[in-house]
Amino acid sequence: MIDFSKLDETLISPNVQNKKFQPHLVNLEIPLMNDPKEIPIEDTNSVDIDPLNVKSFPIVSDLTSNKSVIAIDSTAMRLGTIDDGIIGVIRLSVIRRNAGERSHYLDKYGPKMVVITNQNRDDIYKNLFHKVYGKHLSGSLIPENLKVLDRVRNLYERYIQSEIVKSNEDSIILFDGSLIGGTVDNPKFFIEDILKNAKMNRNIVVSISKNTNLTLKHNKRSILSLIENNSNSIFLGPINNKIEQNSERYLGDIHVCRLIENGHPFRIDIPKDSAIESNELFGLLSALSGPYGYPEELKFAHSTCVHSSIEILALQALAIHEHKMQIEENLRNMIFAPFITG
What we know:
Blueprint: H1 5-8, E1 20-23, E2 45-47, E3 57-58, E4 68-82, E5 85-97, E6 105-117, H2 121-133, H3 145-167, E7 171-176, H4 188-200, E8 204-209, E9 214-216, E10 234-236, E11 252-258, E12 265-271, H5 278-288, H6 296-303, H7 309-323, E13 326-327, H8 331-336
Parallel strand pairs: 1-13, 2-9, 4-7, 7-8
Antiparallel strand pairs: 1-4, 3-10, 4-5, 5-6, 8-12, 10-11, 11-12
Helix pairs in contact: 2-3, 3-4
């Protein structure tokens, strides 16, 4: 298990006793959606590829690798709002399948409650940034409270990624997202250290994105559209040399892949000096994939760190009890009911 105690110290709640609390609406008949992860604005870029002239390669599913598989994911969710801030929770999951085994093992961290106000958000983010990255944040505006909650989640996730690559060997380690560095909340040196430490332990980091802001110069469509007319399991790339601006920020080789026939396309970033050839690596990922062509381990990591509706209700009750807050109905609901549909 990973020790988060030095990070958790930064989450000590300010005094919000007797404040009014507006709980985030929970509908038990509708699956709860966790707050979406922020895609770094720096990951928005144009790619100069002609969609009518691309070369793709077949993926042959193969699970003969002797490496273990580890997947990491995290989620954040608002519990509700207070007068000058929000209360939220984060949770992280690590799924492990050892080489030669079919069973999966789960390490779960959280839920960790986070109180973010206009008064404390600078200190929370800057202190957590320093404890994770070992450097002080300077010259950067702190975003609004909801984005700070997502950046707290991201910092916890980067920390656990760093610890996992150092404490495991001979593994395929799956991340959710990309291998971009040089952004406000993803310093280039830290992502490079993750990749370096992974390589020292004979690990291979694979980062998988369901969505991407990389778009084609010619038609402004997502790079994922490059393989939309071919339903076979294929990949193309790397495409880094076609990225028009700041290509040095992309610390992995970027590919567009469909891991199984008729599956969904994904952006997949792999190390530029991977010990396994890309076609072999994608063959392994194909063998790990379930319906829709998404690796099962990464799906399990996500599904075990999401917060259910019942959990959110319990956590809202806990927050109200611990902070002795008073429930206040949402003003918008009071004004516009019964006309509100969402």
